[in-house]
Write a structure and sequence with these properties.
With 245 residues, this protein is of the alpha+beta class. The chain has one domain: CNF1/YfiH-like putative cysteine hydrolases. Helices cover 23% and strands 23% of the residues. The chain has seven helices and twelve strands. The strands form three sheets. The chain has a six-stranded mixed beta sheet with strand order 2-3-6-5-7-11. Strand 9 and strand 10 form a beta hairpin. The longest helix is centred in the N-terminal third of the chain and has 15 residues.
Length: 245
Amino acid sequence: MPVTDWLRPDWPAPPTVRAVATTRAGGVSRGRYASFNLASHVGDEAAAVAGNRAHLRAALDLPAEPAWLEQIHGTGVAMLDTEQPTGRADASATTRPGRVCAVLSADCLPVLFCTRTGTSVAAAHAGWRGLAAGVLEAIVAALKSPPGDILVWLGPAIGPAAFEVGEEVRAAFVSRQADAAAAFRPAQAGTYRADLYALARLRLAALGVTAVYGGGWCTYTEAQRFFSYRRDGATGRMASLIWLA
């Protein structure tokens, strides 16, 4: 049952590409982390996280343990072709079959990439800070493919009706891309409601990447299905994974 609740990208990826985004369903974590928390850094019981990760590997028949990153809302990209990541990064990429790119999220935007040839895949964790700083641009550069050959899928993130931010967030985007102003709607005095999905699409379009799929969920309002840090504070994390068969 839980596996059927997980999200499988609806995109024209080649058959060598496998991709999944989990929800909060199907695990053994309890309380605030119920039930399929995959993060080891949020206060959940270590045994529960280990059990959830083992179930993830078995349910998806993964070829290896996912390359879990120490995410810091930055733009670093871990290249998995030769080894597992050892430092901090908010994205990973590989051309090697059997290496599993993974990012954790609970409101931030997970973004999966592949090439039309099915020879490269990548995953990025794009909160507003990483998105503004250029994490998507870093992945596109790391893939070393023409923009028209890149496919992108936007996973579950906080939706535009729930993501209230200050003027500094709007300024961080508009100062680099004037048309990003359209992704912000006035909320209260001095605040805006930001559309992470629209901001990601604008950044990708500026790079020439227009084959973008997914989006439309809201982790904040869909409480039964998704973890949300902004809604709950202490909570679990979902995973978005991509690998080459």
